[in-house]
Structures are given as structure tokens and as C-alpha cells.
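[User] At your convenience, examine this fold.
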Amino acid sequence: MVFSSLEFIYLFMPPVFAVYLLLRYLKWETGIIWWLSIASLGFYAWWTPVYLPLLLGSLLVNYGLHRALLKMRSKALLIAGIAFNLALIAVFKYADFFIGNVNFFTNAELPMLHLVLPLAISFFTFQLISFLVDTYKGNITSCDFARYTLFVVFFPQLIAGPIVMQKETIPQFRLTNFQNKLLTNLAVGGTLFAIGLFKKIVLADGIAPYANSVFNLAETANGVPLEAAWIGALAYTFQLYFDFSGYCDMALGLARLFGIRLPVNFNSPYKATSISDFWRRWHITLSHFLRDYLYIPMGGNRCGPIQRYANLMITMLLGGLWHGASWTFVFWGGLHGAYLGINHAWGALCEKGYVPSLVPAWLGNLLARGITLLAVIVAWVFFRAQSFDGASGILAGMFGLSTVYEPELWTNVETATLSVWASLACLAAIVFFLPNAIEFTENYNPVLGLKKLLAQRKTEGFLPLRWRPSTGWAMAVSALFAVAMVQTYRLAEITEFIYFNF
């Protein structure tokens, strides 16, 4: 059951929200918290009931560790708790990856475990680790089990983030928050959900076949022609953008229906002027987690430039591995680590005045955005490709280096049409000229961290469209929702969000 499925929209949300309204009317704070927790566990069990005990077991063990850390600030206990959580990920997500590599490099024949990846294990495990670390640091003095449970399993963010910290959501689980501004919450939450649904079903899933066709071609053919390579790379670039931003919008909207504001997780990353800026905009909560719980504890930038670059590379390599048990993901992370190193080195040279300003500021800004986006697109090729051979085939085609390819396969792909380029142009216009959903609803405080987002936006140019609860906007948003729902009925099957696989 995904947010964009008919089961979720018609069978899950109506009863969950109806009971929430009843408990809200009764002013039963504990009842609301436990009802949302039970509903969230049911949402999780809909996928793979066999892994519900794993989630519950992890939840109980970590709460026990939390209580123990409150009584004795033992670093050994904290390390044991972190090791327990990482061991779960290692077994279920990376066991076969490590076994396969051992077999490859040593010619051993160790049997694969073939474990099915438990849904959301990467996300809820990171939240639990942060909870233990915050407890050890004294940032949490007490937390009742009901609010802790909802913090871990709250269904709008359980499956694919954002990765929330306890300080961001647990203080919101109060009756005053649940009872505040019901009509505004319904309007803002419904608007964000409708926008996200349209992004996912119409935009992301609409362009996905072109990306899939070209990347499949790269795995089976001897080469990919230039036009096909660029269509595939750009199609995936926009597919991932609208798929992930659509999920983030829907998660924000669903949480807001219950009066909860989640942290900002997506902020127009393709408008970034540098790779550092990109990571301040893309999967923001993951970036913050890696920074606060990995990069800074390793020394961050406090140990000189060489160690700083090493810390950056290690952080990004592990960030790549977090996304999937594949060397292509590791390489993607390493590529971004190299990008960040170059970015910081260039910034240091600019600060010292070694780089003269040869172009006007507006042109420099445009060039910076173009170079950053090109670097991101190249990295996405490794993120999407099933193998290094496939990624190499796409990149060779993009830069005109494919000397051998099979024309009949390219003919069968049927992507070299004017309509495809028109679709890509429309998607680009939406990305670069329209406000994102958070900016669109900014007057109604849609997320935590809104002030920082708005301050970052000052130098950007886009159409100043702003939503407000009016008849006109209600009709426009309803039209988006209706189009998305019609498309949902037409689909043979609902596709999962890309980040559900991580």
C-alpha cells in the first residue's frame, strides 16, 4: 500500500482520519497517540506482515536501551545500542552483498542468505540511532512509551522519511497541537497531498518508461546512441526529482492533516549553485543525519584540509552504500564525495582571491548552476544503472563516444521523438520556473525549518505563485487531484516510490 494507491486513499485514510476526529472531539490525547501508532503499524504490516515483529522488536529493544542510558550515561552501552541497530541493517540489507564479494575475491562458495529487505529498515534504524545518541548526550530527559512509539512508526514518514529527530516531532504529540486549526490543516494538508500525488502519478510515472527503456538498452546492447543516452539520463533525472519530491509533499500533507509538521526534506535541488548547495536541498534530513552523526564525530573540518576531504569521502561513500547494496551506489557516493572535495577546494581558492572574476555575477551564477546540474546528472547515471557496463554505455553515448551500437534496438525503444523532448522541456520548466510545494504554501507554515528555506530562496527567480484557501485555488488543486486519480485508475499496477527500495 503506497500513498498513491487506491487502497490507501479509499480504505486506509478515511477510517484512520474519522477515528482521529472522534478522539480529537473527545479530547483524548493518549487515545490519539495510540490510535495513530496502531494505524501506522497496520500500514506497515500491509506490505510484509512477517517483518512487523522485527520493527516491534527493534522498537522495544531501543526503548529499553534509552531507559538504561537515562539511568547511567554509559558510552559502552551507547556503542552496544548503535552496534545492535547497525547489525540489523548489515544482516538484512548487506549480508548477500558482502557474501557475494567474498565469493568473488576469494573463489569461495559461501551460500547466499536471500533475505527480503524489510521495508523502511534504513529509515527507522537511523531514527532509533539518533534517539539513543540524543539520550546519551542528555538532550532527552524523559519520553513516555506512547510518544516514543509514534515517533518511530508515524506512517507519513515511516517508509521513506524524512528522517526525523525526536526534538522535531515528539514535542508536537500534544492535544493542543492535535486540536489546533483543523480546517487550515485540512486545506494545507490536502493541497500538499494532491500536488504530491500529481507529481508521482502523472509526472514521474509518465516519464519513467523512457528512462527504463534506455537504461535497459544500455544493459543489453553494445552501445547507446547520443540522443538515446541524453533522453534516458534526463528522463531519469526528472523521474527521480518528481518521484521523491512527490513523496515528500504527500508525507508533509498527510502529517499536516493530523496537525503535525515534519522537517523540510526537499528544496528545489536542481536550482543549486554548487554540490554543497545541492546537498543542502536534496534529502535534507539524510544530509543532516550524516553530518551530525558521522561527519562531525569523525572530526569534520576541524583536523585540517586533508582530513576534512577524507571525512567527506568516507561520509559520502557510506551514504552511497546506505542507498543500496551495490557497487554502483558506492561509486555514486564516492563521486559526490569527490565533487564536494573539489567544491570546497575551489571555494577556498576563491576566498583567498586566487580566482579572478572574469564574467558578470549573473552569468557566473548561471554557469555554476549548469555545471552543478551536469555533475548531478552524470552521477545519477550510476545511481540508476544496474551495472558499471550499463552506466558506461549511457555516459559514452552522452558524450558522443559510442562507436558501436545496435540500431534495431534503438528503433524498438521508440524514444527519439519530438514529443519526448517536449515532455522533458515541460518538466524542466516546472522545475526551474515554478515554486516548489513548500514555497507554494509558505504563507501557512507547511514545514519545520521554513525560515531557513525562505532565506535560502532570496537569490532565486521563479513565478510568485502562492496558494491560499480560496475557491479558485481549491478548484485548481482539485483538478490536479482528479487528473492524478484518473491516471491511477488507468494504470495496470501502482509503482512504488523509488526511495522505498532504500
